Protein 1
Amino acid sequence: MNGIFEKNNIKLFGFLPFESVKNNLINCKNKSLIPEKAKTVIVMLFPYFSYNLKKGNLSKYASVKDYHQVLKELSQNLLKDLGEKYPDEEFIFFSDNSPINEIEAAVSCGLGVKGKNGLLINEKYGSYLFIGEIITTLELENYTISEEKSCLCCGLCQKVCPENAISEGKVNIDKCLSHINQKKGDLTSFEKELILKTNYIWGCDICQDICPMNKNILETFIPDFKKDIKENLFYEDIINLSNKTFCEKYKDRAFTFRGVSVLKRNLNIIKDQNQ
């Protein structure tokens, strides 16, 4: 099986017995896709950091090609190869909207530790990671369940968070900039001030960028995350675009899923302040 993963350029993966997670599944719409006779969870990491990725007004994860598209392409080839190798088994891929607690599963199979900001941190690739899983009916002989380990517990992510949204591995989303600048509707004066203070119009990397476990990390081995990087989106780029035109122009970017109005609102907040 390892050879199949290597062939598909998936270098970070681990295995868990489905039995170990089945009592803590998330009640999302994809839960119904879990195979009836599930035996194994395969957890995979997809790092997206590259040395070309600079700080901008878009979070790093949104500066690269839409991870939904990249992971879908990688998983399709992987599932094809697994299906050919094990034709009598089922393999279902999940990412983002997963019934598995992705971070806890990744920690359990030794792929990293959980930071105080609630993010998974891999020893070599830091916390700039996307996570995916395959739930399969294939039963493996050897599973390795790792003891849960902590990050360095330096507390820097908590200290630099603009509104102290981080506390002991949990994030108060009402104070989290990444949640605030991606939600629809009008913002409060407090929320507008947070955007002005940080200049982020989509997402936030403040707690990741300060993390000492993100220093001197390796860059991604996934080619699609190294090219066509767009760290900034400016007022002039989108102000005259309809939602349809915006989504077509940036169809390969994760920041389109809320539509153009959210980004126009955020850019207008900054523009009005600067006038």
Note: Residues 207 and 230 are 21 Å apart (CA to CA).
Protein 2
Amino acid sequence: MCALPFKATQPQNRAPAGAFKADRLARPSMRLPLNPIHTPLPIPFTVRYFIRLSYDGAAYHGWQVQPNTLSVQEALQQALTTLLQKPIPIVGAGRTDTAVNAHFMMAHFDHEAELPTRQLTYRLNKILPPDIAVQRIMHVTPEAHARFSATARTYHYHIYQNKNPFYRRYATLITTPLNFKRMNEAAELLLNTTDFTSFSKLHTDAKTNICQVTQACWTEVEPGLWRFTITANRFLRNMVRAIVGTLIEVGRGKIDMEEFQAIISRKDRQQAGQSMPGHALSLVDIRYPAEIFLNSDE
């Protein structure tokens, strides 16, 4: 229980009424101001938690709550509100777009008391829909932030080149021949790029288009199934899908290395390739400083 900022005490010896009245008239008033701004109030104690979750984005209009549409954030908030019996706002590590998947997503929320994290994880999974799963809930430092404390994020984009009914939900079919060697050469140019305006959705609320990409490459996962892996400290809206669309134009021979570099330098979204479908994109990893986690042994 928080201590009260002021506790009145009774004097040991009561002075005569007349003497008290005379003394009060002789001294300035010691009464505390009535303005509540000047009244110290106890600060409520809160605990911050990180939620690690994954989801299939096919049924959702992205992560962020939007009017008249279903989002992952809304579904998770409703589940937490039901279990904790009070409105629980959550903050995500990023805003995945419509149909985009997440093998690894982080969000945080605050609560006034310590929570049994394993039990809460179990109960959340009981009431969440089958396309959202919570892997873990972790106690973190009060200043830890799911979005701003992240140091790196990794996305995968999958394409396949021969019709396969088992790839279609999480990969994009491209049957034209692609030169993946050239696509990887172009992807290396991203490592020396800082301004990604050419690959950003227009008219966003981003304050800067500066990103630091530390990995960008294509690898063949299975015969005919290719994966693009990209890691950066942050990503812009639509950035990965626009990069993939432009690299595919390189693979088709429609854009050479000089033209790809020129697209980056022009800082014009209209010069880059088309945005690829969201269902083949997945957020797969987010990195944080180890010291923000307080119950790493759970």
Note: The beta strands are 47-55, 91-92, 101-111, 132-140, 152-160, 172-173, 213-222, 225-232, 281-287.
Protein 3
Amino acid sequence: MADHNDLLQRRGDADDVHCRHCSLRSLCLPQALDDRDLERFNAIVRRPGHFKKGSLLAREGAPLHSLFVVRSGSLKQVSHTGGREQLTRFFLPGELVGLDGLDTLRHPGSVRALEAATICDIPYTSLDTLAEQLPALRTQLFRSMSRTLREDRLLMGHFTHQSADQRLATLLCELSERFHRRGYSAHRFRFSKSRAEIGSYLGIAMETVSRVLGQFQQQGLITIRGREVWILDLPALESLARGDRLTVLIPTPSRLAPPARTSPDAQIATLSLANH
């Protein structure tokens, strides 16, 4: 893959976590493999180390040699159409990167680190060969492809007919569900995506993103504290995303404030809302 080796920042054995001990195994390709087959899968996985924020993992149009699995942090995919750049996808821990390029074996967009991130690199030829020998692996690969297609179709179907506030509500609900599926809090996010990137993803102006987020705070739906977003009323956000009429109550200070304490075993994932 173009520029792949030049951009890797190796950290040594500390990053070489066996698939058996990975906390994301239940979300990843080898989730249905027994111990023997898991060893075979683990043998083809490369763990290149850490990527800095903004690092390029794959260039748009470059040959696709590997699929990536996000281990920590997050990635984004950006495509160019008619000279215009558009953020088309973002990837959270446990998600597969590259499934949309398997038909042409080329990357449909450039993939960069949204924040400091680690990945697993799975060479596609090795994966394809192993999947022919392990039906459970082949089935899981098909399921991952089907899930990606279904989620994209539903999301794009929503965005086509939604207003700006509905699109942003849909995104927040989607983030809540995706983080919750990974064992994180469904109500507190740390995800490094700027307002400009959110606007590019949703097809709305950055100024509109800022306005709608301010509106959501005034309605007591969310609170933004620095890099963190607290969802205070998830059912109301879900209702708004569906297009239901939202009864706006004047929020009290206690409603706007996030909880003073967080459970010590709660895991946090973040939505960065910087204006750049």
Note: The mean pLDDT is 83.
